[in-house]
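Consider the tokenized backbone below.
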């Protein structure tokens, strides 16, 4: 259902934008201005959904100021640049060529997946990238009536789009940031996207000319223009939400398979509706590109069905540290805290040796200090190969519950180490500066 809705809204939005920006049709040739207002529409729709259905779509968690600046802002900036350049290119090239060149985004998606360790490097994937690159080259090679700046804009949008999806995957793995559903993600990233697009639009497009044009000649015409601008914002909201739901529930393989059919359909509909010319070279190029995308989807599918998955007692898959499906987490670091004790939630000191056993007995404060620090029995339950620092981190995490799966959690994985450190400082009292406290506050 979500795949069909994503396909429908994506195709509809492409055709609508082509009709709106094309000088031969509606001729509202200000794509950045329009796209910036789309962000306002999407933010208001996401806000409405969070208010009306708060129990389902308004997570308790909220990103901190530091996370918003360092993680959400780069993602939103890349998303805004991708959308803005894509719409800007539709002023200069036809929709079929745009769709063909934009399909090269998978090249950059795989590149950034390798860069951020979201995907394991393999020769097969490199071969797929080469095949898709050859197809894209054939699309634009010796093509007639090709606008070079338009193609460059689409390629830049594809590259930024690859970065966008890699960053989006990284932030959606962090449940503590409150981005656990598509509407929450749209709510937090669209303000930054709007700021970026409005800024670029002010610099690149004549706003005075826009409001003095025939599109705003009188109040009635202005209302009609505003409605025409707002409608694709609603379509874009439905498309993005459907896309996030597909990624959240099914993963990238069915999304890619649906994308293959969408690309072919968009090119066919564009040639039928707008009369875009499809030369033999373009047709061969798009076929080669789609074959490359199909091989990538087949590669991911075979890899998923041929993998032996271990199940726990509840029947849930156990993801190992070297499993590429495991959400990306940072490496463990040693904590600069006293090694002998862990502070309990009540504020009393708990010796580590009291936690290093099956009973996890909590020792009272009235025990002898020598007995506290003796560490008797540490070696009885601790593997010989385990270093002291690793044992300290393990015991601390087990005591505070960071290595356990919480019932009802959307992500059954260990908490990110920066979340562990932040919550630990909130509980035991961190020694950070006021600047750190400022950035660690929730939005």
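A designed sequence for it:
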């Amino acid at each position: 259902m979500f795949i069909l809705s994503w396909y429908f809204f994506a195709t509809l939005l492409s055709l609508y934008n082509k009709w709106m920006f094309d000088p031969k049709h509606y001729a509202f040739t200000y794509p950045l201005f329009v796209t910036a207002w789309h962000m306002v529409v999407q933010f208001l729709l996401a806000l409405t959904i969070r208010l009306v259905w708060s129990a389902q779509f308004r997570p308790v968690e909220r990103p901190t100021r530091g996370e918003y600046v360092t993680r959400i802002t780069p993602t939103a900036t890349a998303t805004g640049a991708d959308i803005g350049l894509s719409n800007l290119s539709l002023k200069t090239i036809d929709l079929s060529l745009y769709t063909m060149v934009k399909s090269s985004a998978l090249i950059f998606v795989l590149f950034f997946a390798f860069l951020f360790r979201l995907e394991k490097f393999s020769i097969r994937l490199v071969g797929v990238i080469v095949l898709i690159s050859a197809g894209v080259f054939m699309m634009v090679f010796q093509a007639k009536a090709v606008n070079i700046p338009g193609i460059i804009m689409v390629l830049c949008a594809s590259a930024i789009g690859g970065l966008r999806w890699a960053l989006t995957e990284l932030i959606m793995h962090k449940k503590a940031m409150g981005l656990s559903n598509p509407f929450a993600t749209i709510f937090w990233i669209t303000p930054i996207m709007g700021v970026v697009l409005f800024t670029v639009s002010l610099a690149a497009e004549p706003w005075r000319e826009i409001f003095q044009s025939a599109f705003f000649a009188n109040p009635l015409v202005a209302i009609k223009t505003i409605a025409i601008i707002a409608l694709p914002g609603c379509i874009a909201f439905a498309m993005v939400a459907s896309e996030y739901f597909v990624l959240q529930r099914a993963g990238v393989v069915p999304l890619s398979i649906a994308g293959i059919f969408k690309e072919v359909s968009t090119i066919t509909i564009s040639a039928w509706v707008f009369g875009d010319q499809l030369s033999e070279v373009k047709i061969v190029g798009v076929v080669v590109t789609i074959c490359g995308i199909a091989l990538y989807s087949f590669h991911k599918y075979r890899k998923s069905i041929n993998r032996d998955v271990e199940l726990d007692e509840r029947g849930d898959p156990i993801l190992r540290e070297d499993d590429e499906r495991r959400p990306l987490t940072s490496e463990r670091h040693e904590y600069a805290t006293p090694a002998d004790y862990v502070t309990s939630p009540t504020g009393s000191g708990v010796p580590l040796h009291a936690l290093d056993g099956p009973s996890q007995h909590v020792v009272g404060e009235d025990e002898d200090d020598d007995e506290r620090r003796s560490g008797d029995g540490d070696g009885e339950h601790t593997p010989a190969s385990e270093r002291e620092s690793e044992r300290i981190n393990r015991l601390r995490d087990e005591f505070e519950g960071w290595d356990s799966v919480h019932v009802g959690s959307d992500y059954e994985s260990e908490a990110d180490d920066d979340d562990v450190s932040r919550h630990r400082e909130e509980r035991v009292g961190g020694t950070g500066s006021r600047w750190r406290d400022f950035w660690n506050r929730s939005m």
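The CA atoms of residues 320 and 326 lie 7 Å apart.
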